[in-house]
Amino acid sequence: GTIGTLRVKLGSEECYDDVEVVRCEAVEDSPIIYHVGVRLLRTKPRKPGSIRHAVARKASALEPSELARLM
């Protein structure tokens, strides 16, 4: 798959990580919108500002039952 950098805004925090595209499907009836599945790559250590760091921080604040529901 294609390798690139994904930047997202989680709340007020802008995060980024290197990703590999693993799936890309056109949205029905739209010539310009696609659903894209990516795999986060571990090309750099997890650090503040990375998507992996933000998700880990948010997950650690959840109760075990909430975390289990999301998995």
Description of the molecule:
The chain contains two helices and three strands; from the N terminus they run E-E-E-H-H. A three-stranded antiparallel β-sheet has the order 1-2-3. The relative contact order is 0.20.
Features:
71 residues; single chain; alpha+beta; 2 helices; 3-stranded antiparallel beta sheet
Topology readout:
Elements: E1 3-10, E2 13-26, E3 34-40, H1 51-60, H2 64-70
Antiparallel strand pairs: 1-2, 2-3
Give the helix/strand class.
alpha+beta
Number of helices: 2
Strand percentage, roughly?
Answer: 35-45%
Q: Helical amount among residues, as a percent range?
A: 10-25%
What strand order characterises the main sheet? 1-2-3
According to DSSP, the number of beta strands is 3
Distance between the termini: 25 Å
- Flag low-confidence runs: none
Order of helices and strands: EEEHH
- Estimate the mean pLDDT confidence: 89
Q: Radius of gyration over alpha carbons?
A: 15 Å
Give the overall shape. Answer: globular
Profile the largest sheet: 3 strands, antiparallel
In short:
The protein is α+β, with helices and mostly antiparallel strands. The chain has helices spanning 51-60, 64-70; strands spanning 3-10, 13-26, 34-40.
